[in-house]
Write a structure and sequence with these properties.
A: 144 residues, mainly alpha, 2 domains, 6 helices, B: two-stranded antiparallel sheet
């Protein structure tokens, strides 16, 4: 098994533990109601997501700079992985938008903002991909 | 559409049964990539292709062959 492949498996295991920890802390600390009033609760939640991101950075970025562990094939696979990541983000966003909109509809909460958030992310990501393509051409013309 | 095939496995055995690990170290890639190359599951970059040919001391076309599926 390639070193990057091993890291990806560790990443999945860590990701599941990350979700479980987040949900557990959220429930144990009092849920959505307590989140607004308890600053410690918010700090713990912030630490969890920031900590999780740091773990992922440490898991992947150093290894990508080691040519004896990661070669062109690994990098090609790594560069293709955002296709799956992007699909997962969209499906998660759609699930949250529909779920929360239906849960809070007619309760005085302006659920339209969820749709605004979703469409904004969708539009920005489409534009960002186009920018990415243009930057790619520009960079290749400049650096070869 | 064509396919790029290679003789890496044959050439390894012709070179004192060079191991996949040894070849990987010589050309600067992982053993998994050598395995994928030998199974024709990965087409290398031009640079890696040249490095493989250089490791065996043969011209590029002795390692990699282009097969046109339309018979051209």
């Amino acid at each position: 098994m390639a070193p990057l492949q091993k890291r990806a498996i560790y990443g999945i295991i860590f990701g599941i533990a990350w979700i479980i920890a987040t949900v557990a802390v959220f429930i144990l600390k009092g849920g959505a109601t307590a989140f607004d009033t308890d600053q410690t609760f918010r700090l713990i939640m912030d630490s969890i997501w920031i900590g999780g991101l740091i773990v992922y950075l440490v898991l992947f970025y150093p290894i990508l700079r080691k040519p004896n562990l990661v070669d062109e094939r690994d990098k090609l696979i790594y560069d293709r992985s955002p296709r799956i990541q992007w699909l997962a983000i969209i499906f998660t966003l759609v699930a949250w938008v529909i779920g929360l909109s239906e849960a809070f509809r007619g309760q005085g909460v302006p659920t339209v903002f969820l749709y605004v958030m979703f469409f904004t992310i969708l539009c920005v990501s489409a534009i960002a991909q186009c920018i990415g393509i243009l930057v790619g051409y520009w960079s290749m013309n400049r650096n070869g | 559409m064509g396919r790029i095939k290679n003789r890496i496995r044959r050439l390894r055995f012709d070179h004192d049964e060079m191991t996949q690990e040894e070849l990987a170290n010589r050309v600067g890639c992982t053993r998994q990539t050598i395995i994928a190359l030998e199974q024709n599951k990965y087409v290398p970059s031009i640079e890696l292709a040249f490095r493989v040919a250089k490791a065996f001391g043969v011209p590029l076309e002795e390692v990699f062959q282009y097969e046109d599926s339309q018979g051209g």
